[in-house]
Structure formats: structure tokens, C-alpha cells
């Protein structure tokens, strides 16, 4: 997950979280028109798929948001409440499979409001950009701010398969008054690096709830050489860990045999440097035997008190899949 030799789209997907992921509570607040396809489909985390010959009452079934052909002046727009509020660094406006019905251009506005307020005081974060048929359109966002909502404007009408809003979660400080899962996405937890991501990305470990299937977790390929697989996770806030949960939900013939977790209090956030350092971090959770499709909970009796830490290295032995990792503690 290092940014070395990565393209801009790879950096966005590996380094930042999709603040508009449907799985973290993102909602459609309003839309001017969704005659051919509802806007909620635009938030599906899975890549868009075309369904030849599949029709509904409005025509060809499309994965994404599609408005009717506009016969008057104006344009269509959709307001999205982000599941995770925070700083936006980049977007992907995806027109996959929209070939003769894609918008010719789009722009994005954003605002920050308190819960229950009506979205207002919009600020443009992405000036009008040209769109093409069936393609990903990645753009950096340079406007600083803490955002809770975005408004996607399409000119004049058409279809968007997927909307990804990549950024950094910025949770409110009052979330950290009590013991809390410091690794959770909603609390600012991040995946930094991993030895292998063949079947799944370690970002999945931080999502809310239990995994829905084996595709909703971090899973490595079968290891054919000595050693073990690992991933590095950053806490949302520096804190002292008192409880750890390892969940192997849905992993039955491919769960890790054992797990060891290391921890450290570090200030460097360069992924390449952290990978090297992490080999020598102190043990937070000594080697534990894991079982299939189960929740494993460890408390102060098993956890070694390292004091306040910022990062974890989760070592799975020798390989396999984990659904979720939780690290409960208090901010210090």
C-alpha cells in the first residue's frame, strides 16, 4: 500500500477511505431526477456490471444513477450525505457502461453542517470537468475543509455508474471521551500496508459490523515459502489498548492458524519506513490460536500494556483471512 510507483487512482484506493461508501452509512438526501436508475446504486462498493438483455419498466437495467433526457434548460444533481465526514482529497466519477447516455461534464460541491440541519452554504471543490463514455474519471481535490455532504452536478443529464469520494476521516472529538474502538473507520482508523492483498484489502478489517462474506475481509494468497503474512494498521487516535477482537467470520478452510499483534508509538507516517520499523515493534498480544468462523476476544489478561500507541502490526501465521480487527482503548 506504499505510494511508490503507483498511479493516482491506485494511491486514492490504497491510501484513503471512500467517505461515500454505502457500507458506512452514506445516504442519498435528494435528487432532481432518477427516472431510469435510482441514485442509491451509485454508492454500491462493487464495480459496476452491465446486464445485457435485462430490462425493467424504464428500460435497460443500469448499475448507477441515470436521469431522463432533459428537454428544458438546466442540469441534474444529487445530494449525498457522507457516511464518514472528513477531508476530501480526490474523487472518481465513474461512467462505466454508460456509452451513449453519459453526462458530458460534471462538478462537485461540498458543505459541512450539523446533524439534522439542511445542506446549505455549498462550496465548489471540483470545478466542471469533462466526462467520457464508460470510464473512470479521477480528480484531485485541493480545496481544504471538513465536509459532511457533497452535491454531484451532471450536465445536462445522463448516467453515473459509481461515485467515490476519497479522503481522511475526521471524527468529532466527543467520540473519544470513553473507551472506544480506536481502529474503527468511523474513528479515523487506517490501513497502512500489507504483505499480501490477493483476495482482500486490509481496509475491510476496519469496517463496521461483522463481515457479510469472505469477500468482506482481508485474505492473502496461500503462502508457499517460510514466514507469515502481516498488515499494519493505524489507530484513529493515540491510545492505550485494553481489549482486542479478532473475527474470522466466514473463513472456515482458510483462517489463520495463529496470530500475534505488535504495537508501537511512532510519529513517522511513511508506509515504507513503517514496514521496516514494524518488524521490531514490541508484542502487544502474544501468539494466540485462532479458530474458524469465530469471534476471538482478548482482554487485559492476555494483552501486554505497552502504554499509549499509534500503530498495530497484525501478524497472521502462516496466511489466510481475517474479517475484522477491533482495538478498544482510551485516548491518551
UniProtKB/TrEMBL annotation:
Belongs to the allantoicase family. GO terms for biological process: allantoin catabolic process. InterPro entries: Allantoicase, Allantoicase_dom, Galactose-bd-like_sf. Signal peptide: none annotated. Residues 25-169, 188-331 form the Allantoicase domain. Pfam families: Allantoicase. This is Allantoate amidinohydrolase. One of its GO terms (molecular function) is allantoicase activity.
